[in-house]
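#struct-help
A.M.: can someone run this one for me? Single chain, 404 residues.
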Amino acid sequence: MRRYVVLIASVVIQICLGGTYAWSAFVPALSEKYGLSSAQTQTIFGVTIAVLTLSMVLSGRLQDRYGPRLVAMIGAALYACGYVLASFSHGAYPLLLLEVGFIVGAGIGFVYVCSLATCIKWFPERKGLITGVAVAGYGAGAIVLSYLATALFARGLDVLEIFRWIGLCYGVVVFLGALLLSVPATASPAQARVSVGLGEVLGHRAFWGLAVGVFCGTCAGVIVIGNLKPMGLHAGVGLGVATTAISALAVGNALGRISWGLLYDRWGQAVIPLSLLFLAGADLALLGARGSGAGLLLAALAVGLGYGACVVLYAARVASVWGPERVGSVYPMVMLFHGAAAFVAPALGGRLFDVTGDFTLSLLLAASTALVGAAAVWMLMARDAAPPTPAVTSEAMLMVEPPD
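D.P.: on it. Structure tokens below:
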């Protein structure tokens, strides 16, 4: 029963954290009222994701040592403070970059890895499915926040006032969810005895296949995610449809995380390059959906489905190769490449629009990156010799699933 409490708490936490993918709902207001350029708004978004992944490296190790509850509580406090401070920024770009990009990003990273790693420890026999369910909330979070933001904008609230409410309300929910996180009693002894060195991880193709895949998949996804509402408005589909596209992408993202997780449990690592090919096709479909509201929504849904693989497949693969007990320390190393892509790609997509006045080059860049990634991952994985199972005691050996 306890593990289902942890799972539910993790899903609720992820719904709150996933609001970051509704960022494009705030972009028009930040640009129109406070004069931020497209490149600036996308840099804030990109830095948020980049700092998120950087902080995961530290939080993954801290939660191994101190447990997930304390680390997640610290992350919840950072998350709330970042948004509340942003509400007093008067729209100044440097302050928003610091408060949303760095402080909120660090808070998300601290909470995210704790809830995800904890769920995998409770359900080691269903890594793909449980990872997908746990982070599906993250994908669905954009639906909730985009509609809340639309409702609050309709009531006349300023974008910075909305940031304050996000910090206060979401921050409390995340903090309460963090209080419910715990690891199974049988996991702690094994966890203390598993040893995986940095050189051992970096020295195998399995790691670099995951790194390349998550980098290219993230680039192909966040270029769209960070700019989706402006893309819709620029295509002339109207404010309502452009806002709904955010929700369509979020629905696809949530469904994709569960679906790709199930496919991974069935077919293993071969699903990773397949997911990148799907994402490339979805980006191209978005390019061809101009002037069609239905086309935009379907393409956004497809992009979300493809991007949903970028979290669940890599976490599940790490658990398969290095064991569920090492997800908290190895997975953040893979996700550094997610952060690097998020730092570069949204700002580059926004900059291309600032220069050309059109999103064509941005979408072509997204699709081509996914295609290159699929080819590279396929070649790396085809030649991959699975890393040895981490050195463990006989007691821990019973808990660590060998590479598939």
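A.M.: thanks! Residues 2-181+197-384 form a domain with the Growth Hormone; Chain: A; fold (CATH 1.20.1250.20).
D.P.: also worth noting: DSSP finds 18 helices and no strands in the chain.
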